[in-house]
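Recap from last week: sequence in, structure out.
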Amino acid sequence: MAADGRHSFYVLLLVGAGLFTAAPGWVSACPSRCLCFRTTVRCMHLMLESIPPVAPQTTILDLRFNRIKEIQPGAFRRLKNLNTLLLNNNQIKRIPSGVFEELESLKYLYLYKNEIQSIDRQAFKGLASLEQLYLHFNHIETLEPESFNHLPKLERLFLHNNRLAHLAPGTFHDLESMKRCKRLDSNALHCDCEILWLADLLKTYAESGNAQAAATCEYPRRLQGRSVSTITPEELHCERPRITSEPQDVDVTSGNTVYFTCRAEGNPKPEIIWLRNNNELSMKDDARLNLLDDGTLMIQNTQETDQGVYQCMAKNVAGEVKTHEVTLRYFGSPARPTFVIQPQNTEVLVGESVTLECSATGHPQPVVKWTRGDGTPLPNDPRIITTPSGGLYIQNVNQEDSGEYTCFATNTLDTIHSTAYIIVQAVPQFTVTPQDRNVIEGSTVDFHCEAQGYPQPVIAWTKGGSQLSVDRRHLVLSTGTLRISRVALHDQGQYECQAVNIVGSQRISVLLTVQHRVTPVFATFPNDMTVEIGRDIQIPCSAQGEPEPVITWNKDGIQVTESGKFHISSDGFLAIRDVGPADQGRYECVARNTIGYSSVSMVLTVFVPEVSRNGDPFVATSIIEAIATVDRAINSTRKHLFDSRPRSPNDLLALFRYPRDPYTVEQARAGEIFERTLQLIQEHVQDGLMVDLNGTSYHYNDLVSPQYLNLIGNLSGCTAHRRVNNCSDICFHQKYRTHDGTCNNLQHPMWGASLTAFERLLKSVYENGFNLPRGMRAERHYNGYPLPLPRLVSTSLIGTETVTPDEQFTHILMQWGQFLDHDLDSTVVALSEARFSDGQHCSSVCTNDPPCFPIAIPPNDPRIRNNARCMFFVRSSPVCGSGMTSLLMNSVYPREQINQLTSYIDASNVYGSSDHESQEIRDSASQRGLLRQGIVQRSGKPLLPFATGPPTECQRDENESPIPCFLAGDHRANEQLGLTSMHTLWFREHNRIATELLKLNPHWDGDTIYHETRKIVGAEMQHITYSHWLPKILGEVGMKMLGEYSGYDPNINAGIFNEFATAAFRFGHTLINPIIYRLDENFEPLPQGHVPLHKAFFSPFRIVNEGGIDPLLRGLIGVPAKMRIPSQLLNTELTEKLFSMSHTVALDLAAINIQRGRDHGIPPYHDFRVYCNLSMAHSFEDLKNEIRNPEIREKLKRLYGSPLNLDLFPALIVEDLVPGSRLGPTLMCLLSTQFKHLRNGDRFWYENPGVFNPAQLTQIKQTSLARILCDNSDNITRMQPDVFKVAEFPHSYVSCAEIPKLDLRMWQDCCEDCRTRGQFNALSYHFRGRRSTEYSFQEEKPSMTKETETMFGLGKHNLKVLDNSSLSDHSVNVLMMNDLQKTITSLKKQLKKLESRLSRTECTDEKGEIHSGNKKWKRDPCTNCECKDGQITCFVETCPPSDCLTSQKIEGVCCPVCSKHL
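Predicted structure tokens:
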């Protein structure tokens, strides 16, 4: 089988090579016998003796393991796109000059394990982009000083295992980008005085922390093995220079010759350097200067410029010494300053450079100084310098540089000055660019276009290069926006926005597409069908229209969604797999576009033949027993958990994970009952349930007859808990999210919704193919080896007491990751701690009986008390319709798990993932859109409210923790103090924004304020995650994989991948510090001290009684995170003390993670390597590129036996980090894939056009976590602008006033009469006159009384309140009178409109036709309309069920007619 797999792999590569050679633009074919795919060429193990020619577009060239002895000149000509070159494991002996000169894009060069003896001086010239150079394991004996001078971006250099004995000073000069590693160990280095320069360099690296370097001495023998960085001049008997003859002051006149004497001794012989005015003299730049052999400085033909302070410096590797300073004085006749060149007014464009020349003469020579025209000094800006001749030079000019400048020339006799202006002009630049639009005729379209420049540009619009039509429909607003009203078909075409000023112009084009209004028309109709049970069927339906209609299907009035059961093709056909009795009924095909909709229906009848199965007799008794045993176990668990305080870590974990939402509890219970029933029936049937590993040969009625399966589904509750979504309130769904995530994707309303199955990247891997975890049976071997116990993997590989601080990022990097995770996923676990069969607790019996799946403890485990054999663990609840319960869906689907949360980044951790949860945390009484608040602290800011109910996990010890848990949008908010602080911040942020929005829009009701605030808070979280947090986690490489946002894609499912929730995103556990730090306002420890992590679990009392959230927040932003090192993974607070309580066995988070992965059927690590295009691993040595530490590979080998067996979680966290990130390559692939789906599949993504207007989006992008802390902490007033980055207090901290703030004025309604705006119940008022009864509700019918009240209502907020401190009484009175006058005028207009409406009874429809009062008419065959009291009301006729097999649609008749009646 393996051989077949490899054969297929090579065939794929060869096919790829064929595509490679046929690609357009390639000048040569794939080299003979090489493997080519896209732009990668691999020629390994081919015994090549020379470099083959390849195509210019090649980015990766792999020539390893050949017999190449030399690199011919021009071998890499024209390969400007080459990124990676692998030449290791060849026989190359020399690197000639310029051989890589044209490889300007090369980043990675591998030359190790050759026979290189020499490297020419210019060998690496032209490699301006090179980042990594590998030269180890060669025969290099010497290096030229300039060998690496042409590598400005080099970060990593490996030279170990060569024959280097001496290194000349300057060998590694100008390697500023060296960030990671420089290796010189395993050479033949002679550690004498000449090598001290290298010792100093290595010390500099170590002190800066920017790079790692290693070099050891080989000679003399007494120093063998010593690190060069530890060598001192004393032990090498090096002698610092000492001065034996010093120079003297001298006075000169023009044309003299001067000698400054300087002699020095030392070991090695010192170098003599001369300084003038503290600047090193260059003998090359001035022929009059000469340095004699004995160190004497000779200056010939002295000039006035020679005067100054001179000093001699003697320098060698042991140190340096300077003589005393001496002065050369030049004498001439005094003269007042006069200008030689005066500055002139100058015009310059933004971004260019400008020089104001100013030169003066006099004696003494005048000093030139510049100021602004008002006398203020020039800003301290590196762009602004004064040239040696006295000119003012400004580079990269910006608008602020415009203005008057003054040049002063001063000597001892006088001061003169001259002024000039710099006039900065800017070519127009667009700040808001229009976007292509696709609209329906008759609508209004805006093309936004704004620009800036100097002078301010004028916006002009043209169509197809010609002037716009002069009519009232085309209007250019003052902002530059082009508005086209009542769009007609002839308006379609290209429009150009031009921004023009005297400097230049800019132009941008957009396309307007106008769609004709055509309602959907059916091209294919479905007919009634009668089918036998178990068949696969397809019901045809297709439609045409403009815009292209979307086909949806309803069954008995409920929308059908994609699943393993149903599939809607791109044409609109509905496919139903394995038809069962539950599938019969009326199916309606609905074709919708923006113009309207049409529908047609059919009846499906399912014929059930009389069948009997072996399990049928046992159904009744089994389901009764299943309900009894499951309910008994659940009730026993609830009584144990909620009637007393937690007694053990098992109780804490169970309480922590127990679902709070009743619907979640019932859904999990239903799945358990259904599955338990089938297990009991299986036990009664002699042969049991036999299923092949792929689950393909098993059919739904092999065990129980169909009618009995439906009975089980109904009695267990599984059928009742199939979700039914309702997206009919389109006015709401177009603007706001639902709490449960439904209707985000209008084509697939259940995508990303709470209480739905996790998605998967790869097919699940269960022991029996569909529901038993790998490793459940200890005797089972995989690839020849048993799977190791998760606890053994934890103790052998993962747990660590050593913690290395992260030098770049703070601990809040971890905390944001956890907070974000609790917005994305929460697995519903079994409701019972006891097994269903007999009610015994899972941790006491240690057997794998449902729902128990305990973590076995290996022999001689160091932490076992009371002879415990296992740790508590129960399986996650199955989705109804998967695993055993997939029988209900008439097919075998592998077991899937339930995500309790919405998948979107929508702040569900603040607001909840269901309407029930949201109502619990909302302050509905105030009608101000606020969240409930708890006790108010001294700072005046509230804490979260307390949860009510029975004792919780926060009251595990009444002596320590009498305070109940806090209540938040996610039930895990109390898990640890840092997380609780984050929940407190965001609850306060909601109330802060809601309060401000109410001030700006007093006419908004509570629901509008709540949903608008929720929308802003969700957008803030999205922006912080993708703009500030992810770049630190993914690094540059990962962000490129993530890509730029290109708009919403309704074909992308934003659901959370099971692999992400169960393994990949749990990498954050490796960043957790073992201590929760608490710091005061001076960032010093609190008197109460820090808190060990195991004492921070479920401890809200520490926030209430020990200083609030500020000390915890300072600890998060002021302390580095834990650095993930492959040998330092999870700290022992998590692996040895998780949820610890006295006299009990604590839990192990690492073991839980591994066991949960097996419970969920997560495939092994190797499968994901293949998915992420990494190399296949046939042995553990094949992992060395990603897991470089040989000790870790050896541990993995001892534990797992085969690399094909590795569990995903431990393998991901032992991978070496991709440079610049905090992830290994496989983990980076998985996370970038998930976050791309979360962003691109979210219709309410904050950057999706239409979610926010441009001004609001600009404000959202001002958001930062630093600003959130400033606004919502108790009293933190200073912090680093980027709280994720380590910063020094107080130097790198800034005032909160300097951190950009969200300007909520962009959300203020700008309307003449706002009294009816912002009323949540009137959201869709504009549409109600034309909505059919199918999408209307009784309470939505227009009421004249309410409307009249609204028109006459004059709220207390309609008058503006002015600040008396800033305006005179007279001004206040005038403004108030003006406002009052405007209000009265507005009321008069409304009264006239109302009187006009009341005085007439006719109606005007959407086509402009007038209908008299009480007139009734048909708008189309199915829609009846009536004009009453000046308002049109339309109703859609509902067709009764058809009583015939075939029916036909007749033109002019609404409902289908039976064929027999025609």
